[in-house]
Amino acid sequence: MKKIPTFIFDLDGVITNTENYHFQAWKDICEILKFDLNSELNEELKGVSRDKCLKKILDWAGLDLSIKRFNELLDKKNNIYLDKISKINSSNIINGVSDFIINAKKHNHSIALYSTSKNANLILNKLNISSYFDAIVDGNSIKISKPDPEGFELAAKLTQSAHENCVVFEDSEAGIIAGNKLKMMTIGIGKSKKLSIANKVYKEFNEIKFQDFQRC
Ligand code: BG6
Ligand code: MG
């Protein structure tokens, strides 16, 4: 077990701004359902798996759909999303992320990814940063998505890290809840009030300095 912190990154909204594309794609689906999805409600979709997101939306809209229609809308949402991310590349990495990771690797820290997204590997490849990670956990590796801690547990296991030695970077309330459950150090990134349950909150990744974590 390493004594220095292992850094576990979320993907959408932490490494790259794809979170907004998820929101736009869900808004298109909500238009079909005649439901108005606002950005406050969208905070509750962040970090949550695709099917759980649609279940939440149907709940808010008071709608019930056949399994066939449900699956059609899931596919449609994903196709809209895939179209939106088709052109992303390394210029879409959020400022400060690459520098932080390069610095952390230089100092021998393990780096892991835990994203609920089933598209995580596709995006990492487009951003050209797959090789940064000692472990990658995505929506295909887990049974239950955030706020359940399953994915963080797996990321810690794969990097042979004690939970209390892991630092989690998250933009979603669901992700912070999951990290807190395991007593990992949780760092919220963003402006949402929901992130106040994190151990520390930064408005933007760029404000985080690798040196701040060298003694934790
Ligand atoms: C998370 C996003 O990373 O992945 C959520 O925060 C999204 O908004 C979830 O619903 C699932 O993504 P995908 O790509 O599998 O539909
Ligand atoms: Mg996120």
Helix- and strand-based class?
alpha/beta
Assigned CATH superfamily of the largest domain: HAD superfamily/HAD-like
Cross-sheet strand order for the largest sheet:
3-2-1-4-5-6
Would you state the CATH class of the largest domain? Alpha Beta
Q: What is the distance, rounded to the nearest whole angstrom, between the alpha carbons of the first and last residues?
A: 16 Å
- What oligomeric state do the depicted chains represent? single chain
Q: What is the strand content?
A: 5-15%
How would you describe what is shown here?
It is a single chain. With 216 residues, this protein is of the alpha/beta class. It folds into 2 domains: 6-16 and 90-213, Rossmann fold (3-Layer(aba) Sandwich); 19-85, DNA polymerase, domain 1 (Orthogonal Bundle), CATH 1.10.150.240. 39% of the residues lie in helices and 11% in strands. It is built from 8 helices and 6 strands. The chain has helices spanning 19-32, 39-42, 50-61, 67-85, 97-106, 120-127, 150-158, 173-181; strands at residues 6-9, 111-114, 135-137, 166-170, 185-189, 200-202. A 6-stranded parallel sheet has the order 3-2-1-4-5-6. Helix 8 links the parallel strand 4 and strand 5. Helix 1 packs across helix 4. The protein is globular and about 50 Å long. Bound molecules: 6-O-phosphono-beta-D-glucopyranose and magnesium ion (MG). Residues 11-12, 19, 22, 45-50, 53, 78, 115-119, 139, 172 line the site of 6-O-phosphono-beta-D-glucopyranose. 6-O-phosphono-beta-D-glucopyranose (BG6) binds at residues 11-12, 19, 22, 45-50, 53, 78, 115-119, 139, 172.
